[in-house]
UniProtKB/TrEMBL annotation:
<dbReference type="InterPro" id="IPR015443">
    <property type="entry name" value="Aldose_1-epimerase"/>
</dbReference>
<dbReference type="InterPro" id="IPR014718">
    <property type="entry name" value="GH-type_carb-bd"/>
</dbReference>
<dbReference type="InterPro" id="IPR008183">
    <property type="entry name" value="Aldose_1/G6P_1-epimerase"/>
</dbReference>
<dbReference type="Pfam" id="PF01263">
    <property type="entry name" value="Aldose_epim"/>
</dbReference>
<comment type="subunit">
    <text>Monomer.</text>
</comment>
<comment type="pathway">
    <text>Carbohydrate metabolism; hexose metabolism.</text>
</comment>
<dbReference type="InterPro" id="IPR018052">
    <property type="entry name" value="Ald1_epimerase_CS"/>
</dbReference>
<dbReference type="InterPro" id="IPR047215">
    <property type="entry name" value="Galactose_mutarotase-like"/>
</dbReference>
<dbReference type="InterPro" id="IPR011013">
    <property type="entry name" value="Gal_mutarotase_sf_dom"/>
</dbReference>
<keyword id="KW-0106">Calcium</keyword>
<keyword id="KW-0413">Isomerase</keyword>
<protein>
    <recommendedName>
        <fullName>Aldose 1-epimerase</fullName>
        <ecNumber>5.1.3.3</ecNumber>
    </recommendedName>
</protein>
<comment type="similarity">
    <text>Belongs to the aldose epimerase family.</text>
</comment>
<keyword id="KW-0119">Carbohydrate metabolism</keyword>
């Protein structure tokens, strides 16, 4: 693998004009992402499609930094929260803004799991549990990267045997592609030389009205899932799969995020809002598993995935401590995440779909975020 220099050496902007409005959105300056971390160079990569949509990605943590798409008025809108420089991502590592998550996305109970009769112990970084890979997950690593064309960047990382307590040398590849139908396609691939567990995802924080425009509680959400996995007080699944019908978790018909988020429900109280895994009805990459519409922008985001689950998170722990691109603060519930995944704590839950990867097998999965107006 090799590191390719970003072909964008200056701040970029994109302006779209219609009969009523003009808007300009700038991507972060490439120079602010050119650093040396752990002896490896970090860079900024800009993807473009024929419609003028753009995405910015850094090989530090394989973070998605910006995603520019048009709203109903024709204004280009940055729908992803992130930072203006590498230092912002380093300081807020535990917030996972736009990060590629691994080796295991979501939570593992008590930082332990057993494979082939051997118990593995991980670093606990989320109360009594391990979250998103542990103390230093894939979000804090410098990946090898090459931009293969104007719309595609390929990132690779070798997670060595027992890194963060996980067995096996795991070779990981993530490819971001910005397609001409305004979709961001994220393709994941991994192989191992020893039996291990793997659950990769992206932790983009979305606000379809644009970063810095306030709460997402009026966004309309539809999730094609008749069931979800309830959790205990530490947000570990109980092992049950329960129907959403008759609960605040029912988004089988479109509803705003805020319409039921404050209901007197123990699951909402424990999660401080929505922070739960949905058991998807279909995950065939051709059927949207979720649809979200920004109330002000009219931007519609459809999520497609080959994963059996999706964590719906409503920015419950955002508290305004981080300064984002352009000086915006990450205030409470000013973004949401839809992390496509296998279920949380699957290695400790035999009834859940398996996350075990064996030597000779290939972990391969695709998720697409498609935008329209």
């Amino acid at each position: 693998m090799f590191m390719a220099a970003c072909n964008q050496s200056a701040p970029k902007s994109n302006t779209m004009t219609d009969s009523t409005t003009t808007a300009t959105v700038k991507l972060p300056a490439a120079a602010r992402f050119e650093r040396t971390i752990d002896g490896k160079k970090t860079e900024l990569f800009i993807l473009k499609n024929k419609n003028g949509a753009e995405a910015a990605i850094t090989n530090y943590g394989a973070h998605l930094i910006s995603l520019l798409v048009p709203n109903k008025a024709g204004e280009i809108t940055d729908v992803v929260l992130g930072f203006d420089d590498i230092e912002g991502f380093q300081k807020a590592a535990g917030a996972y803004y736009g990060a590629t998550i691994g080796r295991y996305g979501n939570r593992l109970a008590k930082g332990k799991f057993t494979l082939d009769g051997k118990e593995y112990t991980l670093f606990t970084n989320n109360g009594p549990n391990t979250l998103h890979g542990g103390k230093k997950g894939f979000d804090s690593m410098v990946w090898d990267a090459k931009q293969t064309d104007s719309a595609t960047v390929e990132l690779s990382y070798l997670s060595k045997d027992m890194e963060e307590g996980f067995p096996g040398n795991l070779k990981v590849k993530v490819i971001y592609t910005l397609t001409d139908d305004n979709a961001l396609k994220v393709s994941y691939e991994a192989t191992t030389d020893k039996t291990t567990v793997v659950n990769l995802t992206n932790h983009a924080y979305f606000n379809l009205n644009g970063q810095g425009t306030g709460s997402v509680l009026e966004h309309s959400v539809k999730i094609d899932a008749d069931a979800y996995t309830p959790v205990d007080s530490t947000l570990i699944p109980t092992g049950k799969i329960e129907p959403v019908k008759g609960t605040p978790f029912d988004f089988t018909a479109a509803a705003t995020i805020g319409s039921r988020i404050e209901q007197d429900n123990i699951q909402l109280k424990d999660g401080k809002g929505y922070d739960h895994n949905y058991v998807l009805n279909k995950h065939d990459i051709s059927t949207p598993v979720a649809t979200v519409v920004g109330d002000k922008s009219g931007i519609k985001m459809e999520v497609f995935t080959e994963e059996p689950g999706m964590q719906f998170y409503t920015g419950n722990f955002m508290n305004g401590t981080n300064t984002l691109k352009g000086g915006a603060k990450d205030e409470h519930r000013t973004a949401f995440a839809m992390e496509t995944q296998h279920y949380p704590d699957s290695p400790n839950q035999p009834a859940f779909p398996s996350t075990v990867l064996k030597p000779g097998a290939v972990y391969k999965t695709v998720t697409i975020y498609k935008f329209s107006k």
